[in-house]
C-alpha cells in the first residue's frame, strides 16, 4: 500500500479534516483520499476532490460540507470534482484504515487477495468484530458501491468489506 | 461546437444511461436481496459514468446546457443507445443476459478509450473501467450459475441469450461520427473489437453449457436513433418529472 500524501497548508488541512464522509462518518475526507488539492488565492479557497465511484451520491454532499466548513472559518470556498488520476483504495490513509476497522468495516486487501476473497476462493478478510479470518462473501455488492457484504463464520456477524479499487 | 465529438460521446453515454434506467426498474424487485443490491449498484455506476459524459457534452454545447438537459430533454430519435440496452427485464435471465452481452463489450471499449487523444474521455474511461470490471465479473458468474444450474435455469437463460443475440452485432457498427472520431485518434474503432468479443462471450457461454445462437439476421437502428417499441416507454418514465415540472431540482 502506498500512502499518497497531498501537500496542503496545515491551516486548510485542519478545516478539511473536520469534514467527514457522509456514508462513513468516522472517516474524514482527507483520510479517505478524496481531497486532491487545496489552496488559497486572493482570499478564496480552491479545493479539488475526486469521487470514489462515478455514481457515488455522497460527492454533492461532500462538496457542500466543504464549502460550509470553510464558511464557518470565514473563507469562501469553491470545490471542483476532478476525474484524473482516478481514485484508488490505496489512497485511504493508515489512520483511515484503522478508523474503518474500528467502525466495523473491514479495510481493503491488496488487489490479488481482494479478488480471491470476493470470488470465495480463499478466506482472507478478517472479521472486524472478532478478528477471525473464517469469513465468507455473501454479496459482491453491498450497502454502497464501495463495499461488499461478508459474514463471519465464527461470531456469525455480517459485516461490510471495503472493496479494493485500483 | 464540435458536433461529431458530441454525437460520439452520446453514442457511448446513452448506452450507460438507458441500461442504468433499465436496471433501476429492478430496485426493490430483484429476485433476492443480494441480486437486487448488485443490479442497482451497477445501475448507480452506469448513471455516475453517464453524468461524467453528459457534463462534458453540456460543456461542449455551451449556453444553458447542463447534464439534466442532455439527459431529460431530448426526443427519442436523439438518443443514440444500441437496441440491446433498451430491451426489457422480461425475467432475471433476460436482465443477466443483457448485462453480460453488454458488459463484455463495455469493458473492451473502455480499455481502448483509455488511450483516446481526448483527455476528458480518457479520464472517464480510466475511472469507469475499475467499476465495469466488477460488472463483468458479476454477470459472467450468473451466466455460469444459471446455465450450469437446474434444467429450468438453463432453459431460461438460453432463451434469453437466443432472443438478445440478434442485438449484439450492432455494438460493432460505426456511425459517421465514429468514423471521424476514429480518424482523429479520439474514438475507438469498434469494428476491431468484434472478433475478441465473440471469442470471450463464446468461451463463457460454453463454460456455462449453453449453446451459441446461430442467426442470419441482426437487428440494428439504435445508433441512428431508430429504436425498438420499448424506448418510448422508458423515456416517458424517465423524462416525466422534467417534462411536467421544467427545470425542477430535488
Automatic annotation (TrEMBL), chain A:
**Per its UniProt record, what InterPro entries does this chain match?**
Fe-S_Maturation_MIP18, FSCA_dom_sf, MIP18-like, PaaD-like, Zn_ribbon_PaaD
NCBIfam families named among the record's database cross-references = PA_CoA_Oxy4
Q: What is this protein called?
A: Ring-1,2-phenylacetyl-CoA epoxidase subunit PaaD
Q: Domain PaaD zinc beta ribbon: where?
A: 113-163
Enumerate the spans annotated as MIP18 family-like domain.
Answer: 10-72
Residue ranges annotated as coiled coil are none
Organism of origin is Flavobacterium aciduliphilum
UniProtKB/TrEMBL annotation, chain B:
Q: Which GO terms describe its cellular component?
A: cytosol
Give GO terms for biological process. Answer: phenylacetate catabolic process
Q: SUPFAM superfamilies, alphabetically?
A: Ferritin-like
Domain of life the protein comes from? Bacteria
Q: Where are the transmembrane segments?
A: none
Record protein name field: Ring-1,2-phenylacetyl-CoA epoxidase subunit PaaC
Highest classification ranks of the organism: Bacteria, Pseudomonadati, Bacteroidota, Flavobacteriia, Flavobacteriales
Amino acid at each position: 500500500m502506498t500512502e499518497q500524501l497531498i501537500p496542503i497548508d496545515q491551516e486548510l488541512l485542519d478545516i478539511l479534516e473536520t469534514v467527514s464522509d457522509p456514508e462513513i462518518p468516522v472517516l474524514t475526507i482527507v483520510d479517505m483520499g478524496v481531497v486532491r488539492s487545496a489552496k488559497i488565492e486572493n482570499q478564496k479557497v480552491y479545493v479539488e476532490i475526486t469521487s470514489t465511484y462515478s455514481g457515488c451520491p455522497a460527492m454533492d454532499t461532500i462538496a457542500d460540507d466543504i464549502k460550509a466548513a470553510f464558511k464557518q472559518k470565514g473563507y469562501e470556498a469553491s470545490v471542483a470534482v476532478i476525474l484524473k488520476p482516478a481514485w484508488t483504495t490505496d489512497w485511504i490513509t493508515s489512520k483511515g484504515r484503522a478508523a474503518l476497522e474500528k467502525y466495523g468495516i473491514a479495510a481493503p486487501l491488496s488487489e490479488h487477495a481482494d479478488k480471491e476473497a470476493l470470488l470465495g476462493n480463499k478466506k482472507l478478510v478478517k472479521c472486524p468484530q472478532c478478528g477471525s479470518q473464517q469469513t465468507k462473501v455473501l454479496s459482491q455488492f453491498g450497502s454502497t458501491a464501495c463495499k461488499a457484504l461478508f459474514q463471519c463464520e465464527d461470531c456469525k456477524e455480517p459485516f461490510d468489506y471495503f472493496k479494493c479499487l485500483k | 461546437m464540435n458536433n461529431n465529438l458530441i454525437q460520439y460521446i452520446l453514442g457511448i453515454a446513452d448506452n450507460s444511461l438507458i441500461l442504468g434506467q433499465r436496471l433501476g426498474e429492478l430496485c426493490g424487485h430483484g429476485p433476492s436481496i443480494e441480486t437486487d443490491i448488485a443490479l442497482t449498484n451497477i445501475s448507480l455506476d452506469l448513471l455516475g459514468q453517464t453524468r461524467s459524459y453528459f457534463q462534458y457534452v453540456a460543456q461542449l454545447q455551451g449556453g444553458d446546457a447542463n447534464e439534466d438537459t442532455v439527459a431529460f430533454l431530448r426526443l427519442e430519435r436523439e438518443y443514440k443507445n444500441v437496441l440491446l440496452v433498451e430491451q426489457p427485464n422480461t425475467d432475471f435471465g433476460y436482465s443477466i443476459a443483457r448485462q453480460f452481452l453488454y458488459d463484455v463489450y463495455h469493458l473492451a471499449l473502455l480499455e481502448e478509450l483509455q488511450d483516446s487523444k481526448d483527455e476528458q474521455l480518457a479520464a472517464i474511461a480510466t475511472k469507469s473501467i475499475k467499476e465495469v470490471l466488477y460488472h463483468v465479473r458479476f454477470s459472467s458468474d450468473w451466466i455460469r450459475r444459471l446455465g450450469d444450474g437446474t434444467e429450468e435455469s438453463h432453459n431460461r437463460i438460453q432463451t434469453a441469450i437466443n432472443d438478445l443475440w440478434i442485438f449484439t452485432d450492432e455494438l460493432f457498427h460505426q456511425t459517421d461520427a465514429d468514423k471521424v472520431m476514429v480518424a482523429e485518434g479520439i474514438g475507438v474503432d469498434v469494428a476491431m473489437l468484434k472478433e475478441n468479443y465473440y471469442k470471450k462471450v463464446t468461451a463463457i457461454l460454453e463454460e456455462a453449457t449453453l449453446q451459441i445462437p446461430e442467426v442470419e439476421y441482426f437487428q440494428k437502428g439504435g445508433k441512428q436513433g431508430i429504436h425498438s417499441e420499448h424506448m418510448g416507454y422508458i423515456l416517458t418514465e424517465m423524462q416525466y418529472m422534467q417534462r411536467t415540472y421544467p427545470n425542477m431540482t430535488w
